[in-house]
Specification:
- Helix content is 45%, strand content 20%.
- The protein contains eight helices and eight strands, in the order ααββββββαββααααα.
- Strands 1-8-3-6 form a four-stranded antiparallel sheet. Strands 2-7-4-5 form a four-stranded antiparallel sheet.
- α7 crosses α8.
Length: 202
């Protein structure tokens, strides 16, 4: 896990990070402070970044690929709460602040590259930079609102309605997600998703 300043593709990664919804707000001095403490990590498709119930947590900035946030019950039944791709984040910030285990897993849907740092380092950085902390917490509120809206959607909308909402909200991901992952997110079988696709619903 090389540090950003040591990575052979550091120049490209810096450009990608400056498009991140949080990090694009950093000034030059803040970049100089953050760069030495972040690491670059590549994950294979299906690999876990965080496991539900973990206590050791990290902050992730996605530069390539797609992550999913997943909850599962004791019987192994899973529910996908959200997807996140380039320029987005995933995090266990709330669990860290509440001093509770992370209530979901974070996994790679595709091959993924992230820039990451420990939650303790990230919180220390935020506490030193209140404006960035405000930006971050505002984006977290939007993220959690979207997760809640998605959960409500699964109960209130029929299958075509769920698909139409996904296309409206996340059209940029539709062609990139494996059919099985998208179907699971929408609480459909892959066969139902295929049938609706043939009918022009997606």
């Amino acid at each position: 896990m090389p540090a950003l300043i040591q990575h052979p593709e550091a120049r490209i990664i810096r450009v990608q990070l400056r498009q991140n919804l949080i990090l694009k707000h950093l000034n030059a001095a803040q970049w100089q402070e953050l760069e030495p403490i972040v690491e670059i990590t590549d994950y294979s498709k299906g690999e876990a970044l965080e496991h539900q119930g973990d206590l050791a947590m990290e902050q992730y900035f996605i530069t390539e690929g797609i992550l999913k946030r997943v909850v599962s019950n004791a019987q192994g039944k899973e529910m996908i709460l959200r997807f996140a791709a380039e320029s987005d984040i995933d995090t266990s910030y709330a669990a860290w602040r509440l001093k509770t285990p992370i209530p979901y897993s974070i996994r790679a849907v595709t091959k993924v590259r992230v820039v990451k740092l420990s939650m303790q380092q990230w919180i220390s950085f935020l506490d030193a930079h209140p404006r960035i902390k405000n930006v971050f917490e505002f984006e977290l509120m939007k993220l959690m609102s979207e997760v809640m809206a998605h959960t409500i959607t699964l109960h209130l909308l029929d299958a075509p309605g769920r698909i139409q909402r996904f296309m409206r909200k996340h059209a940029e991901l539709a062609g990139r997600l494996p059919k099985k992952e998208l179907a699971s997110y929408l609480n459909l079988s892959p066969e139902t998703l295929s049938r609706l696709k043939r009918r022009g619903k997606i």
